[in-house]
Design a protein that fits this description.
2 domains; 7 helices; two-stranded antiparallel ribbon; alpha+beta
């Protein structure tokens, strides 16, 4: 009988594995905002690059003697899980904007992304500045969250920078500033494609995420329910057999696993924790019912 169940589960797993190979996803538009808060991703400390802007803002300022034109541009890298870098630009800033006169506001420029066919864990964008024909200088670094898990088609990226340029006649110097976060709307608009399930499985296996490799075809179809079946249900059965009380079992699941940490918090993704909250609410409701009845 056990062999029969193992066979059924194996067929289910292989079916999803084979079915997912042919998955093809259309390109999707995406906007990443340059945020004012920082985080560390794969060993790199940088400002956050995310789909939502930050409430706070930040800016960078630099100056040079004399009256000079001001230029801003970017370079783009793919960041792997170990912090390794692969540049998508050609070693020089692209999507360059300039100001030869005093002024402030959004400026936009484009860059033709060559595409990236492998799964991407994180994207890093560095903003550079120069006055006139001087050397480019790094002014700020931004990076997405890890586990971005996207692929990049050949497409045009549009960068929007909120810049300012002013000339100080008294001190005879030019001051350039770049603002991001808040209402300044410094951002990049791009296109991405989602990898199919087979590609995600191979990526997780390559990065030694054995659990993620095994669960990928199930979570693709069942979402957080798959984690509930694999982790929460067996644990609940064991606890119930031990405690012989449904309410105590529900509370024990909460105490043992927790929502922000513990075994369940570690193994179950954020979406799967919804079921934990449901179980917790049911447990509390049962306790209140018993108190009222008692």
């Amino acid at each position: 009988m056990k062999g029969k169940y193992v066979f059924i589960i194996s067929v289910f797993f292989i079916a999803f594995f084979l079915f997912s190979v042919g998955d093809v996803y259309a390109s999707t538009d995406l906007t990443w905002y340059f945020r004012a808060d920082t985080h560390t991703v794969n060993g790199i400390l940088a400002y956050r690059l995310d789909e939502a802007s930050s409430s706070a803002y930040a800016y960078d300022s630099c100056s040079v003697s004399g009256s000079r034109a001001s230029y801003y541009g970017v370079r783009v890298w793919v960041v792997d899980v170990n912090g390794g870098l692969e540049e998508l630009t050609d070693g020089e800033p692209v999507a360059i904007v300039s100001r030869g006169d005093d002024g402030a506001g959004l400026q936009s420029a484009t860059w033709n992304c060559p595409g990236y066919s492998n799964i991407i864990d994180a994207i890093m964008i560095k903003v550079y500045h120069r006055f006139g024909t001087t050397e480019w200088n790094l002014r700020a670094t931004f990076i997405t969250q890890n586990n971005t898990l996207i692929k990049l088609p050949e497409a045009t990226w549009t960068f929007s920078y909120y810049t300012s340029r002013g000339y100080d006649w008294v001190e005879d110097k030019t001051i350039a500033k770049l603002y991001w976060g808040g209402n300044y709307q410094t951002k990049v608009q791009l296109q991405y494609t989602e990898p199919n399930t087979y590609e995600v499985m191979m990526w997780k296996l390559q990065n030694r995420d054995i659990l993620g490799f095994i669960m990928a075809p199930y979570t693709w179809f069942l979402g957080f329910i798959a984690y509930s079946i694999v982790f929460l249900l067996p644990l609940g059965i064991v606890l119930y057999n031990r405690l012989e009380d449904a309410t105590a079992t529900l509370i024990a699941l909460l105490l043992i696993g927790g929502f922000a940490g513990g075994l369940i918090g570690t193994l179950v993704p954020a979406s799967g924790l919804t079921l934990c909250w449901i179980l917790f609410v049911l447990g509390i409701a049962a306790l209140l019912y018993r108190l009222i009845r008692g």
